[in-house]
Amino acid sequence: MCQGCGVNAAESLPPARPAATVIVAREHGDQFEVLFLKRSDVGAFANMWVFPGGRVDDDDSGHDEVSRAVSAAVREAHEEVALRLDRDSLITLSHWTPPAIAPKRYTTWFFVAPWSGDDVTIDNHEIVESLWISPTDAIAQALPMAPPTHVTLITLAEAGSFEGLNQLVARRGIERFVTVPAQHEGALILLWEADAGYESGDASLPGPRHRMSMHNGLPHTYERTNS
């Protein structure tokens, strides 16, 4: 197993909290544009570019985990940027579980929703900037972001449109990313299911790839074969 991912380490941490993220998107030509938000220099994800989202509150309505996460995503979009989303329009894209190496962890559902046309309003406190940007441009500009954000942008760039996204989800299913960290040649590597080294936590093993290499704490290269 990878270092830091042992049973004893996991058992000593509090349980992860459920959370929800929503990628508000619009089609522009032959590709998506997504709403990107820059967080302030304090708190979680300081100075990073993110999508609207936050933890699932106890009073978020729903009959199961996913429906409550949908409620949280709709609520957070309204609280953070004053957007009103139709909950029935949300596409469930993925679910992310971080490695058991941090005292504060969130297991997060990612959804995609079409922009309703509302004006985007930020508070200039927790969120200090907003922009509409294509996924490919966001990656090319190396904007600071968390690994799930980076992978999601690559997925949206591949899909290109809501029709393409629905086809991609139909082919892959709603993907679950349970992250296993590993070290290889001095670099931090994040491994996900289908990678040759995922089960053992050994990033040096040859074979299929589903991983991300990190540089200075930020995403560097995403590799995925047989997708």
3D architecture notes:
Helix content is 23%, strand content 33%. With 227 residues, it is an alpha+beta fold. It folds into 2 domains: 10-178, Nucleoside Triphosphate Pyrophosphohydrolase; 180-224, no CATH class. A hairpin with a 2-residue loop joins β9 and β10. α4 packs across α5. The longest helix is centred in the first third of the chain and has 17 residues, at 65-81. The chain starts with 6 loop residues before the first helix and ends with a strand. Residues 1-10 have low confidence and may be disordered.
Summarize the structure.
With about 230 residues, this protein is α+β, with helices and mostly antiparallel strands. It has 5 helices and 12 strands. Strands 1, 2, 3, 4, 5, 6, 7 and 8 form an 8-stranded mixed sheet that branches. Strands 9-10-11-12 form a 4-stranded antiparallel sheet, covered by helices on one side.
Please name the defining characteristics of this protein.
Nucleoside Triphosphate Pyrophosphohydrolase, globular, 33% strand, 2 domains, alpha+beta
Write the layout of secondary structure elements.
Blueprint: H1 7-11, E1 17-28, E2 31-39, E3 49-50, E4 53-55, H2 65-81, E5 91-97, E6 106-114, E7 127-133, H3 135-140, H4 147-159, H5 162-172, E8 175-178, E9 180-184, E10 187-191, E11 210-215, E12 218-224
Parallel strand pairs: 1-6, 5-8
Antiparallel strand pairs: 1-2, 1-4, 2-3, 2-7, 5-6, 9-10, 10-11, 11-12
CATH topology tier name of the largest domain: Nucleoside Triphosphate Pyrophosphohydrolase
CATH homologous superfamily name of the largest domain? Nucleoside Triphosphate Pyrophosphohydrolase
Q: From the alpha-carbon coordinates, what is the Rg to the nearest angstrom?
A: 17 Å
Number of helices in the DSSP assignment: 5
Q: What percent of the residues sit in helical stretches (DSSP H or I)?
A: 10-25%
Task: Specify the structural class.
Answer: alpha+beta
How would you sum up the major sheet? 8 strands, mixed
Number of domains: 2
Strand percentage lies at 25-35%
